[in-house]
Design goal:
- By secondary structure, this protein is of the alpha/beta class.
- Helix content is about 35%, strand content about 20%.
- The strands form two sheets. An eight-stranded mixed β-sheet has the order 5-4-3-2-1-12-13-14. Strands 8-7-6-9-11-10 form a six-stranded mixed β-sheet, with helices on both faces.
- Strand 7, helix 5 and strand 8 form a beta-alpha-beta unit.
- Helix 2 runs parallel beside helix 11.
- The N and C termini lie close together (about 10 Å).
Length: about 270
């Protein structure tokens, strides 16, 4: 525990409570770790600018040193003042994904620079924007996807997720490769196969000479599985998925009861 040089936090269901907010005690414990020279980072499916905006809203922009956004496709280093995009999806490939699902009762969304972009407005998009605390904008995806984007999200009703997963099994694109997975009850995402939270963390920490074994990672959902498994100390939230709990070294309290703060106080701040 005394060897930890960095803490990486998932956002939704982990660092954040259930109302697009953070818990004061957890924030206090993170600042105590920062005072000891530990880097504090976010690793999330949200895009970097959305995380920056939220940290400003919460008044903790000086707390966060590193942001691994879009599931690992965006890297922001506040210490070095650098922002990097890696392994974006080709726009043509995104449009092929959309065509594969467009006969279903779904919407499509791409988070970019703190805004959710979608080809149409509906209740699923509105629920997503409300839950994430993000503005949304309707655009022509044929034009919007002229340039590569970090990922594309299929937005569905939770009850329809099994149909989305089943449809994914028949998707193929001879010109491009992609990976896909469930990232929440309402989101199924496509990204470059090389994109993962672990890979993003490795790239972000390289400039600081911090290895995976020196990192404590907190997560809850299936898309946190890899970083919880691969970091030196992997902690799953009490509200986490069974997959991520199975990969964790520890299971802490849930995201509404200071799971992160309690773990830090019990294990990481002990002398």
């Amino acid at each position: 525990m005394n060897q930890i040089k960095a803490i990486m936090l998932d956002m939704d269901g982990t660092f954040m409570g259930d109302h697009v907010d953070v818990l004061p005690y957890t924030v206090e414990m993170l600042y105590k770790m920062k005072e000891r020279g530990v880097l504090i980072g976010i690793s999330t499916g949200r895009d970097v600018m959305n995380v920056v905006d939220l940290c400003q809203k919460w008044g903790i922009e000086d707390l966060i040193d590193i942001i691994v956004g879009s599931g690992g496709a965006e890297l922001y280093d506040r210490i070095l003042g650098t922002k990097i995009y890696q392994y974006p999806l080709a726009g043509e490939h995104i449009l092929n994904v959309i065509r594969h699902y467009e006969d279903m009762d779904v919407n499509f969304a791409i988070p970019h620079n703190g805004v959710i972009y979608a080809p149409k407005d509906d209740d699923k998009l509105q629920d997503l924007a409300r839950a994430d605390g993000m503005p949304y904008q309707i655009v022509d995806f044929n034009e919007f996807c002229a340039e590569p984007k970090a990922k594309v999200m299929i937005v569905c009703n939770p009850s329809d997720m099994p149909k989305i997963v089943e449809r994914s099994e028949s998707f193929s694109d001879p010109n491009f490769k992609s990976a896909s997975l469930i990232t929440s009850r309402r989101l199924y995402e496509y990204m470059d196969p090389r994109v993962s939270k672990t890979n993003g963390i490795v790239q972000a920490m390289r400039e600081h000479n911090i290895a995976l074994e020196d990192i404590c990672a907190f997560g809850d959902a299936d898309n946190d599985y890899d970083m919880v498994l691969n970091c030196g100390i992997g902690v799953a939230m009490g509200n986490g998925s069974e997959k991520t709990k199975g990969a964790a070294d520890y299971i802490t309290d849930d995201n509404t009861h200071d799971g992160i703060g309690n773990f830090i106080a019990k294990y990481l701040l002990k002398d």
